[in-house]
Design a protein that fits this description.
Length: about 220
Amino acid sequence: MFRPTLKNKLLAVKPALAAGVLASVAAGVDAGLPKPTYVFIDASNIIYGCRQSGWRMDFVKLYSYLTKRFAAKRIIYYAGADQANAKQQEFYNLLRKIGYELVVKPVKIYSGRNGEITKKANVDVDLTFEAMLYFGEYDRAVFFTGDGDFYRLIAHCKANKGRVWVFGNAQRTAKELKVLTGHQFGNLDNLRNILSFIKTKETDTTIVSVSRFME
């Protein structure tokens, strides 16, 4: 008895549709699986934004949130690095152990007119460059920043990607970014209850180590 195969059934309906579906099956593509999501974190903007709002980000919780809610494939953390700051270097090593990918740039020291010292590392170019470098690898993007300098990058992603989210502290986020992303802008202060660092007596050595750097 003749039993039509999937190919025969599809070809009988619509050749073009059949070709597309068969190609997906052959490639092992499951339409039900989440599409690749990359996360780009402008570290200083987020850290200081949370502190200004009176709380500190727990990066263990953040990593868990991003991998569970967005099925994030890569979470890239952009920050300045002070080689003389041993505490900072150890914190960065712990972030790597959690699963973050770090892109760090040496901080530069600036002297003000009144003799005040400022340390700064501008990683905006690095974040923008890599978001474009990996552009063909992801279909959804999550940006953690409030910096309006990223407007053109995020607008380009929004026009060409499946979904784009921006997370930042509302009071420190450029108005144009909030208008651009609309309901896909997330105010980090609204996530304070699930992402804030709470000092506890943990037995897990990794959590204990991370907590020491959140002081």
